[in-house]
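Hey, resending since the last one bounced:
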Amino acid sequence: MSVVPYKDKTSSKREQVEEMFDSISPKYDLLNHLLSAGIDISWRKKAIRLLQPEKPKTVLDIATGTGDFAIEALKLNPDKITGVDISEGMLSFGREKIRKLGLEDKIELRSGDSERLPFADNVFDAVIVSFGVRNFENLLKGLTDMHRVTRPGGTCLVLEFSKPRRFPFKQFFGFYTNRLLPLVGRLVSKDASAYTYLPESMQAFPDGPDFIRVLEQAGFTQTRWIPLTFGICSIYIGKKR
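The structure tokens again:
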């Protein structure tokens, strides 16, 4: 059974994820940096550095949220970055952030379903996503659509939480995500379900070699798995032939 934010509702995972992010959007950036002690910033920077040799000119940032990954991707010096997200609440904060930075000519944020991307085939040199694939209703379908819009020779890069496998990081991470994270998230965001859903979705997510298998099933080749910070987070890379 799919992990969903609001267990008392019968709506689809997609609808519930949209509702959840609309709910927490005012506090999302604050909580991201607070709950990760700012490490999420360095994770995004490392992921983008891995793409620099590719020199992509067109970049699609899926589940863009408030646009942090899209803004970081400007270091690739692309012609255009397009970000898509299902949450208008998150997008509104992202558009305001981009407007204040004067980046509207480089980054466009638009509403879009990550599993039914509103783009033609073979459009983007790089398709990236940070902390978003875990929320897909159908992981394989979402990755397959990412493959569809990537041009031949292009690159897919996924940054996502993963589960540490070694003592004592495995035990500490379990305590942090199951006890401390929901408490702080509830106090700051006022949405208890959102930060209970986070550790549940992380636990259910097929990380590491399991995710690589799904990435390859979606059509990507030359895949790589790069664990970060004792395995708390991982970068996954695949190419389209």
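The two ends are 33 Å apart (CA to CA).

Sorry for the duplicate.
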